[in-house]
Each structure stands twice: as structure tokens, then as C-alpha cells.
Amino acid sequence: MIARLRESGIRAVGSLGFCVLLLLAGPGRLPAPAQDSASPPFPASVHSGWPAPSEPASFTGSFPICRLLPAELDDHERWMGSADVGTDAPLRLGLGSQRPIGTTLSAAFSLRATDRVPWTRPCPTLQLLSPDSSKHERRMTAAHLTMDAPQQLGVAEAELPRWAFLEDHRLLLSTLISITAVGGVMANSLIGYDKNHSFQIHHEGWFGADTTNGGADKASHLTDYFVVASLFGDIYRMLGYSENAAALWGFGLAVATGFANEVSDGFTRHGFSPEDLAMDAAGAATASAISVSHTKDLFGMRTSHLPSDTYTHDVYSADFKLSGLGQRLGVNLGPLRWLLFSVTYGAKGYRVQPPIEHQRQIGFEVGLNTQQILNDIGVKRNTWWGYSLHLVGDNIRFPFTAIGMRYDLNHGKWHGPNSGNFD
User: Fold this and answer.
1) 412-419 contacts: CB < 8 A, separation 24 or more?
2) Any idea where the domains of the chain sit in the sequence?
3) Residues in the chain with pLDDT < 50?
4) Where do the H-state alpha helices sit in 80-158?
5) H helix or E strand, kind and range, residue 347
6) Under a CB-based contact definition with an 8 Å cutoff, are residues 395 and 336 in contact?
7) Residue-averaged pLDDT of the chain
8) Cys staple from 261: which of 41, 185, 390, 399, with CB 3.0 to 4.6 Å?
9) Which residues of 98-133 are buried (b: 16+ CB within 10 A; e: fewer)?
């Protein structure tokens, strides 16, 4: 869908033609309207005030700001100007063989370099009017000025450090990263655990009360591979891949590493877990969907790995960012932009010695958005040190940075308000 939207945008730019080029020239680059002036906006020629085909379009001076207005407002004087848009060949204004009666300037003129510029469609739908036009004329049709809003939002999330070396060796590094990632996770399992087992498949279950970890391990796989896919996506964008291609690389490589990890676990006491692999893929798919839909400014996930042999103090979260909402609505939220609304999951007491009450908690909390706080104090993702801090701050839910209520699925009771980790 993003590719189609981008193609549509390219066609729209082509259809706007000369009008868009004039806008790109920026405010203060167009000639003043000649509604009440004896000096016309175009160089005079023998063609009754129309530029001759051989005359270059060269205008200088101080020009007013002009606006795009709907074409149906044709009961007022129309005028257009030329701007120094800097093509490879000199731009010239030319005429066709004749100018039919009633043809507007925008339709009569065409841009030419060495050859005529091949526009896909004429540009009759929008026109430029001077600031002193009537209030009725100055209204804008939003449909004609549609921009790719998600790309304008969450700029801080889109910024990445750049290094020409990475882009110059993109193919080599892409291959090495893939091999290293898959090999690394396999080594982690094969070296870190006893391998005195033939390959075995272990169906662990999902989030049930009678599972080994109460489903906390599945929440861990979901959020961990959300982070992994996001990281791989960023790396491939640093290598010069397009956003969509990087998201695809991130998803594919995250799933590949998850699969390699489970295959390696198949030769250990853990066994190959189809449930773990499914959660890996779900986390990677969520990260890629958020990336290609340009909603990183709104949604995210954070993982939790506190030092322990169990998951009893870990809380995993899916987040909604108030900062992104305020930006999209054009509302200054003040300090509220530093907050998140989150849905969390955690399991208490599973595999804990001495045994304590088992709880599976779904939580609803308000917490600190460390990503936005880092941005506001000047720590940006477009530097290597800033990206490193964001890698930690954006993706880990720290203890005591949120407060909320949690519902114990095992006993049907609410707990809180609390921070969730050590309560």
C-alpha cells in the first residue's frame, strides 16, 4: 500500500507540473501580479506581450507570496510567474502554434529545456493567485494539498546516524549481518546449554495458568522480537535501503533468527517450541507493520529483563504515546507529552522458591515516555551515541517508571495502584 501511495504521490507531482515547481521556489520568488500595473510579469515580445519561444524565462526582484487555489474560481484575473528552478538545461517559456481564445496562461505556457518537459497531465486544477485576492478566493481545498502526513510526523523516530562507509558496502554488510545474527543465536543455544539430547519438540502452551511461566515467557518473546525487528530495520536503513525494504529485511531477519534459535533449542533440554516461534513472528510482524504505516510516533512495545532466574519481576508493555497524538492533532500537550498509556502483562510466583501465590496480571498503567524525554533534552537518534541511548531508553520498561492497576487472571482480583515489578 505504501508503494502505491508513493506512486500516486509521484503522479500527483507530475500532474501539478509548473505549479509545483513554482511553489518549490519558495516564498518571495514570484513576480508581482500585474493587475493594476503597467509592467507585465513576463518579458514583452512581438507576440503581444507573450514571451517568444527563444526568450529565456529569467526574472529577478522581490516577489510576493502566492497560494494554490481551486481552479473553479476562474472569475478573477489569473497570473503565473516563472522561478529559477535550476534544471540542467536553461528553462525557456514557449508557446504552441497558437493560443486558442479563452486559454489561460497556465495552459498556454510550457517549460522547455533541450526538449519539452513531458508532463503526464496538464495543470488546470490549481492556480496561483496573489495575496490581495478576495477572501473567497483564498480558501484552500485540502484535497489538492494532501501530503504524506505520517512521514512528517515522528521525525525524531525517523532520524538515524549515517556513515557513507555503510552505504558504500551495503551488499557485503547485509550478507555479513544476516550470517552473524543467525549464527550468533544458534551459538547461544548450542554453547550455553547441555546438548545431550536428540532433537525434540516441546509444546509449552501459551498464557495458561498451568504453564511453566504463566505466559510471561511468551510475552517476552513477543516484545523481544518487536525490538529485534525494529533494530534490524534501522540497521538496513543505515545501509541505504528504503524504508519499506528495511522493514522487510527487519521482519525476515528477525523471524530467521527466531527460527534458528528454536532449532538450536531443539537439541537442548528446552526443545523446539512452536509457540515461542509464533510469538517471535508476531512481534516482528507488529514492528514491521508500525514501521510501514508510519505510526512509530504513536505505538510501540517495551521488553523487560530484570536480573532473575524467573520472570516474576518482569512487566512487558504495549504503549500508546501521547506525544505522537498531540503532534498529529497539532496540540501542545505540555508535560503530558512525556507520558504513555500502556497495557502490560506479567506473571508472579511461577518457578519461584520458596513457592508463592501464582498470578497472571494484565495491567493498565500510565508511565514515563523515556523516548520523548531523551528527545526533549537534546538526545537525538541521528548521532551514534544518541541512538545507543535511545536503543535502551525506547525499548526497555524500567522499574518504578509507571503506575497502574493490574488484574489477576488466576484469582479474579485487582491489585494496585502499583508499579508492577516488585509489588
Assistant:
1) 415/359, 415/361, 416/363
2) 1-146, 157-418
3) 1-67, 69-127, 129-130, 133, 135-153
4) 105-108, 149-152, 155-158
5) strand 339-348
6) no
7) 75
8) 185
9) ebeeeebbbebbbbbeeeeeeeeeebebbbbbbeeb
